[in-house]
Amino acid sequence: MNEQTQMSAETDDLVIAGVNYKSRLLVGTGKYRDFAQTQMAIEVSGAEIVTVAIRRTNLGQNAGEPNLLDYITPDRFTILPNTAGCYDADTAVRTCRLAREILDGHRLVKLEVLGDQKTLYPDIVETLRAAEILCREGFEVMVYTTDDPIIARRLEAIGCVAIMPLAAPIGSGLGLQNRFTIREIVETVRVPVIVDAGVGTASDASIAMELGCDAVLMNTAIAEARDPVKMASAMRHAIVAGRLAYQAGRMPRRTHAAASSPLDGTFFT
After folding, report:
1. Would you put residue 64 in left (φ > 0), alpha (ψ -120 to 50) or beta?
2. N or C: which end of the chain has fewer CB within 10 A?
3. Three-class secondary structure of residue 216 per DSSP
4. Hey, which residues are catalytic here?
5. Which sign, positive or negative, has the C-alpha torsion 67, 70, 72, 73?
6. Is the pTM of this model over 0.85?
7. Handedness of CA 197, 198, 202, 208 (dihedral sign)
8. What H or E segment, with its residue span, contains residue 163?
9. How far is CA 8 from CA 15, 22, 220, in A?
10. CA–CA distance, 223 with 34 (Å, rounded to integer)
11. Would you write out the chain's pLDDT as a tens digit for each of its 269 residues?
């Protein structure tokens, strides 16, 4: 269990940058039919942190257009601006600065610097460079990255407040393809580990939590479900179930059967 999770053991809150959250499900705002559906799904999910693509979503910078903040209000949710669509460190840094200006000095950001449009894999060289600049400027950086434990340690050393390894490519819905490396990251860093990208359904979210991850961030798995609101509810319960299972500790895996009821002291006739 990560140190920040241990600090809140009595309540089992998720702690990010010194702030406590009850929900361990983080959600995005893209790909929904409209802002009204976005609002409904997010409310049902129980999420408290909502990530928003600054380069793609109007938060007031485009006068006369619908403003997401009229539906997902900052007094109820922690708005997590992200740098989706950025392919180099300089663009990502400028996007975070814009977010800080739009959101009145907001410091918590989700950094993602992509390598190419086909895979949407992180460009780690540019991610590291952007993280160094943003941390130096006082941003609280939650960082999207590969499932490399060594890179996770470097990002933590730079000052990132959460490490967010992908479980599978963004929007793929393939589920956790890398359980071993995700587990290694959980055991390697002391800041929260949040699976980001690749979740397709509720069981994927539960598996991530059973591995010891502190939270899961998702968007497409909810927004592109046949019934996004119902899927949001499923994800909410899956996160809680996975967390409880991790805390309870699973039974040992065995290569043979073991009777559920003891045989000692049983009389056979």
Report:
1. left
2. C
3. strand
4. 110
5. positive
6. yes
7. negative
8. strand 162-165
9. 7, 11, 30
10. 10
11. 455 544 444 579 999 999 999 999 999 998 999 989 999 999 999 999 999 998 878 776 677 778 888 888 898 999 999 999 999 999 999 999 999 998 888 899 999 999 999 999 999 999 999 999 999 999 999 999 999 999 999 999 999 999 999 999 999 999 999 999 999 999 999 999 999 999 999 999 999 999 999 999 999 999 999 999 999 999 999 999 999 999 999 999 888 887 776 666 665 55
- The structure tokens 């600090």 sit at 7
CB 27 within 8 A of CB 43: no
Please tell me the distance from the alpha carbon of residue 219 to that of residue 223, in angstroms, as a whole number.
6
